[in-house]
Design brief:
Layout (H helix, E strand, L loop, with lengths): L7 H22 L1 H4 L3 E3 L3 H17 L16 H4 L7 H9 L2 H26 L4 H15 L7 H7 L1 H15 L2 H16 L4 H19 L7 H5 L1 H18 L1 H12 L25 H4 L6 H7 L19 H13 L1 H4 L2 H16 L5 H4 L15 H20 L4 H25 L4 E3 L11 H7 L6 E3 L12 E3 L29 H9 L4 E4 L10 E7 L4 H4 L8 E6 L6 E3 L7 E8 L2 E8 L3 E8 L4 E5 L2 E3 L1 E4 L3 E6 L2 E9 L2 H26 L15
Parallel strand pairs: 3-4, 3-5
Antiparallel strand pairs: 1-2, 5-7, 6-7, 8-11, 9-10, 10-16, 11-15, 12-13, 12-16, 14-15
Helix pairs in contact: 1-6, 5-6, 6-7, 6-8, 6-9, 7-21, 7-22, 8-11, 9-10, 9-11, 10-13, 11-13, 14-26, 17-21, 17-22, 19-21
Keywords: Membrane, Transmembrane, Transmembrane helix
Protein name: Bacterial membrane protein YfhO
Organism: Symmachiella dynata
Length: about 700
Amino acid sequence: MQKNSPPESSEVRSLFYVTLTAVALTVLFWLPLWEGGGLIGGDTYSYFFPQKTFFADSLAAGELAAWNNRTGFGYPAIAESQTGVLYPPNQVFYRIFEANGAYVANQILHYVLAFIFTWLYARAIGLRALAAVLVALVYTYGWFPPRMCLEWAIIGGTWLPASLWAAESFLQSRRWLWLFVLSLTLALSMLAGHFNLAFITQLVLLAYIPLRLWFTAASLPEETRALRSRCATGLLTAMVLGFSLAAIQLAPTWELRGRSQRSASANTGYGHMPVWYWSQVVMPWKWYRADVDLDRVLNENLPPDSAMTNKVEAHLYFGLAPLVVVLAGIVFLRRKLFSRHIIFWIGLGIAALLYTPGWLLPVTQYLPGFSFFMGPGRYGIVVTLAFALLAGTALDAICQRMNLLGRWVLVAVVFAATTADLWYVSRAVTNVVMLSDAPLRHVDESPVAQKLAEFTGPTRLYAPGANLTNILGTASYPVYLGLGPAEYFDESLSLPAPFPLDAPPPADQLAAVQQAGVTHVLSGQSLESLGWPMRLLWYGVDPFLHRAWARSPNDPLFLYELSETRGRAYWESPSPEATVEIETYRPSHIVIRAASKDGGMLVLTDLEYPGWQVDIDGKPAAATTAAGLYRGVEVPPGTHTVTWNYRPVSLYWGAAITVATLLLWAIVGHLRYWHPGRFNYFEKQSETP
């Protein structure tokens, strides 16, 4: 691989055209989203939009979305991480746009960034501009579009090539700035939430740094080769500082992990790629057909004790045109193709490919980090990047043997064929649909939301479909959380399931729902003839819910107010005249006016969790856990003001570490700018004769 050093103006011009190409590709692949549409399917309305609408509402109220009080009995949104509370693009987009527009704009931005960063990395290791475009195309549109239902995929995957670009740029220049950029990109990958791709990025860097310095160092400057150990130390230190930059996110998440359903090993085999499905790379026509139910095919051929998978997690495809280019390069240009750098990437890609079936899980489950994540198929992102670099290198070598016209014709044909191929696959292998009229735009028209808003006090809705009704501004049950407090996964504490909405309720199930503070029930059928203790508030077609659930207008919904519920706060052993009034109910701040001549345990039917502090009349009180999961406090006789505040110590410690790291980088920058001669750790010292 030859190193090119075009004039700076030429490189800037190339970057400008690459940016235009990146934007144009998002228009081609996601035109309905550019036109104001939205996505539906997968986890969009059951997971991501409930979180994002809560986040947007918190920003509008001027609050930090640290605690989500809408999902079940609440959970620490700052710790669960997929809300991305502190991720800078989220902070910008969800202030500017409504939730659907922000969600779409964020994904489109990261498709553009992923394309640009991949191109920049390919250029940094010596590929010519046109070949680097193919690398960016294969990486960005080979792996991510089928995973459009998973917002974290493109957002997390953006920072893999960005981190590699920063590391490679440092090795080429030994400038301290690139160490900061590396720390920043790693921190951003973790602030974005869902750390799986961030973890994979870190693994790639841990392999890349030593092998680049000691195995593929021939293309590095002589000064870098002379200072291998120092450069490795600098890069590894920058990686560590990336963690400390993201500590404001990592500290709360670490606390939640120890109290979550993943405190023990998760089902790490879920989302693997069966080895026979590797054939999709060379035989897409066999699998990507309308008459093939991929999810069924993938799972029916698995061994009886094997973890399940699905077509999205198991997807791996690069396009047929890049495959032809690679084969041509292998046949005709072997010596030019297989540089040490490409051999490294081939080796890394093969290692990642061998991990995708889950063969190594019996070993890696005992290694730090691996046991926390499901989806061995996600290591296909490394395979995709490795193949993209191989294809770009082959195209570069072939183009060197052609005249200018032939070069442009070849690149145009390969680019067009690959784009068309990947566009088709993005539609054939997916579980989301782009709609011109996004359901989320009809929330304000929801009669269910309007009826719930008329209720005095906080509402909790028992509804079909986990989480989705959170979007209406109400707490709801049941719950769907990828990383959630263990109480939600403890059968002894969960509401009895399945709750029979088509028969008279058993006494124990009804009592559990009433004790949990459920105030309303939403059903797909009338419950009045079944003896339910509730009052019909509304029935009909809900413009939002019917769209989100793809429900026929001929199938009405029924909203009931539950009788004899304990509501959001109650006395555990009330005297006849005891009263409870919730004066303020915000996600992280609750004020209750409680009166009782005998006093006793006051229960708030929200989740007890570290960080929640309680005051009685402005004086700290001891919180306790009621009924195994709710917040409780002993209140003396009389009338008192009970105040709950969410002040997580883990967040404050994390913030302190993040600020300290920023100050450290600021000091380094100051010293490098004003005293460059005294801070030359990565410069070779001249020998004095």
